[in-house]
Amino acid sequence: MRRKIVAGNWKMNKTFSEAQELMNQLSTYQKKHTSGCEVYIAPPSLYLTAAMDIFTQHEVRVFSQEVSLHTEGAFTGEISVDMLSSIRATGTLIGHSERRQYHGETDANCNKKVKLALDKGLIPIYCNGETLEQRKSGQHFNVIKDQTEVALFSLTPDEIKKVVIAYEPVWAIGTGETASPEQAQEIHAYIRGLIAEKYGQEVADEVSILYGGSVKPDNAKEIFSKPDVDGGLIGGASLKIDDFTAIIKAFD
Ligand code: PGA
After folding, report:
1. What is the tens place of the pLDDT at every residue in 198-235?
2. Does ligand 1 come within 6 angstroms of the Cβ of 7?
3. Shortest-distance atom of ligand 1 to CA 93
4. One GO BP annotation here (predicted)?
């Protein structure tokens, strides 16, 4: 059975005290409820160690929003896989569309980062997705195919099983426009099919594929009910405790 996951990507939001408050609320919620999914958050890196101190029972798993391509040294502002494993973070986002758009992230880099993370026992959440132009011109399947192959297909079967994929159509991120549940299912099934072709169905069936892009309490349940959608990567709605927990409850 593959993992069901609701992951919050906080991006560059919240002061330290606001972040602590939300983490404490989430910890309390998770300790009281038996959620039908695993719950992850990716707070700003400055708050990662505070998050580790709060979620001591692993009621929420802590992820970085980004990781360096380099392992150590003169790379000002970067965070390494060793640093993440030394604080016992669970994993890291890799290839988020905002990193691609504003920081020149590429799939070749993502491939290296995914391998570095796996080597340290970290779970990579590899993000991909097409832009509006690419969808309008009917290129979305090819874009997803290229992204998935370049970033992931040099992994071994055992390695790819540990990767979480987040399909996030760029046109749906932070726009309030969500892919329909059918559109999400179509791409998720396509990605799983690509993995099955390369690694076999058994391996493909173990890879969790999350949907991201304007998931909200009122659309989460329907999107998550699709057979190849194993949860969500949530931006804006992960910043409010009521919204985030309502999305977690979609798996109850
Ligand atoms: P959003 O962001 O839920 O605010 O659209 C999702 C993401 O970027 O991961």
Report:
1. 999 999 999 999 999 999 999 999 999 999 999 999 99
2. no
3. 9
4. glycolytic process
Domain spans, the chain: 5-251
- Model confidence pLDDT, tens digit, residues 155-184: 999 999 999 999 999 999 888 888 899 999
Assign residue 40 a region: left if phi > 0, alpha if psi is -120 to 50, beta otherwise?
beta
Atom 1 of ligand 1, residue of closest alpha carbon: 235
User: Among the atoms of ligand 1, which is closest to the Cα of residue 166?
Assistant: 9
Query: Domain 5-251, what fold?
Result: TIM Barrel (3.20.20)
Question: Any known ligand binding at 10?
Answer: yes
Q: Per DSSP, what are the bridge partners of residue 150? A: none
Ligand 1 centroid to 4 CA: how many Å?
Answer: 18
> Against a cut of 0.85, is the pTM above it?
yes
Q: 200 in ligand 1 pocket by Cβ < 6 Å? A: no
Active site residue 188: no
Task: Out of 96, 105, 130, 188, pick the active-site residue.
Answer: 96
For residues 35 and 14, give the distance between their C-alpha atoms in angstroms, rounded to a whole number.
Answer: 25
Strand partners, 209: 165
